[in-house]
Amino acid sequence: FQRFLGKTDVSQELEEVQAEARAQENLNIASVLQLLRNPAVRWQLITIIVIMACYQLCGLNAIWYYTNGILREAGFAEQLLPYITLSTGATETLAAIISVSMPYAFICKSTK
User: Fold this and answer.
1) Smallest Cα–Cα separation from 42: which of 33, 51, 53?
2) CA dihedral in degrees (28, 32, 37, 42; nearest 10)?
3) pLDDT: is 75 or 98 the higher one?
4) What is the Cα–Cα distance from 35 to 106, expressed in whole angstroms?
5) What are all long-range contacts of 100-109, with beta carbons under 8 Å and residues at least 24 apart?
6) pLDDT digits (tens, 9 = 90+) for 21-38
């Protein structure tokens, strides 16, 4: 922390890390089976599963297959195509992680 923050007194930051570690120890993690058995969150979980299953059927893999050709036809330089495709994929992956983790965080909070 001292090197990262550029200061010698990092006691407050260390206390925050220790407080977070203590909070994680008290966290009650629900299993998937427990979530499915809980009627309060069952429909939210089913909704998430159906949405993610439909996402797999929307044809996005075909779009990724043709991405380089589409970008090439749009006039992008050949040496930039892998970077554009990679950044687009990273953005999609980040959006998917956020869209899945937000409802999961809500479900875990409501099972307590």
Assistant:
1) 33
2) 100
3) 75
4) 12
5) 100/48, 100/52, 103/44, 103/48, 104/48, 106/44, 107/30, 107/35, 107/41, 107/44, 107/45, 108/29, 108/30
6) 887 777 677 777 887 888
